[in-house]
Specification:
By secondary structure, the chain is α+β, with helices and mostly antiparallel strands. It has a domain at 99-231: Alpha-Beta Plaits (2-Layer Sandwich). Helix content is 46%, strand content 18%. The protein contains seven helices and eight strands. It has helices at residues 2-32, 45-76, 82-95, 114-119, 132-144, 189-198, 200-212, and strands at 100-110, 149-152, 155-156, 163-166, 169-172, 175-177, 181-186, 215-226. The strands form two sheets. The chain has a five-stranded antiparallel sheet with strand order 3-2-7-1-8, covered by helices on one side. A three-stranded antiparallel sheet has the order 4-5-6. The chain starts with a helix and ends in a 31-residue tail after the last strand. It holds the Pfam family DUF881.
Length: 257
């Protein structure tokens, strides 16, 4: 009798288990709504950086298009004085919001090759990658060499441009980029090259180029078409909590100069 009882319990348990499994699959299908619960997405840092870069580039293009529409409408309505319009164009060239062309140099920086990283497991990983200070050193040297205009990753660099390192990517104007990093400058090529050669920071970088094969390449460019800066020019200043800034007083308010 005991043997028959165990068999009957087993026969009753199998359909119950199958029923539970069926309910589980049905619930999963409903939750997924016909899609894969683990879709094949590129969740690596490189993939996220590229996705964010594309999204930012799209927004920048939209912003630039809207700005051009505003300027065109203002011109059509004659709301800008001709002298003021010329003054704005001159300032736009100096600020970097106008495309420019000319000859110059392109400096390309790269991380150490994978085989070098693999063959040097005991070496500090920071020595094998390009950092923000390396890019800044090149940018500063090119400015010191008399560069008329400069871009990083084909994005125009202006006076308020900040270069930040986040993980193994570099953030420029709020957008992350992965190596190789291309810094392009328009100007006298001999002066630009001389400034690079005389920079003590770049000499230090070249020590790592020799030791760990970091990428450092300088290319002469006979014709460079550099885009205008298309981001916002609005600035926000930092304030000290609890400190009230004394408002400035105009001369007219005090009764004279």
């Amino acid at each position: 009798m005991r043997k028959l009882k165990r068999i009957s319990l087993w026969r009753a348990g199998v359909p119950l288990a199958l029923l539970c499994a069926g309910l589980l699959f049905a619930t999963s299908a409903t939750s997924a709504r016909g899609t894969d619960l683990r879709p094949s997405r590129n969740t690596t840092l490189a993939g996220l950086v590229e996705e964010q870069s594309r999204r930012s580039a799209t927004l920048v293009r939209q912003h630039a298009a809207l700005t051009q529409d505003i300027e065109r409408l203002q011109t059509q309505q004659g709301s800008i004085d001709p002298k003021l319009s010329k003054r704005l164009k001159d300032l736009s060239l100096a600020v970097g919001t106008t495309p420019v062309t000319g000859s110059g140099l392109t400096v390309t920086l790269k991380d150490a090759p994978r085989e070098v990283v693999k063959d040097n497991p005991d070496v500090d990983a920071d020595w094998l990658v390009i950092h923000q200070q390396d890019i800044q050193a090149v940018v500063n040297a090119l400015w010191a060499g008399g560069a008329d205009a400069l871009s990083i990753q084909n994005h125009r660099v202006i006076s308020t441009t900040g270069i930040k390192c986040v993980g193994n990517s570099v953030v420029l104007h709020g957008v992350p980029y992965l190596p190789p990093y291309k810094i392009t400058a328009i100007g006298d090529r001999r002066k630009l090259q001389k400034a690079l050669d005389e920079s003590k920071y770049i000499k230090n970088l070249q020590d790592y180029v020799v030791k760990f094969q970091l990428g450092y390449d300088v290319k002469n460019e006979s014709q460079i078409a550099m885009p205008a800066y298309e981001g916002t020019l609005d600035l926000q200043s930092a304030t000290v909590p609890g400190f009230e800034r004394t408002p400035s007083v105009s001369p007219s308010a005090t009764g004279g100069r």
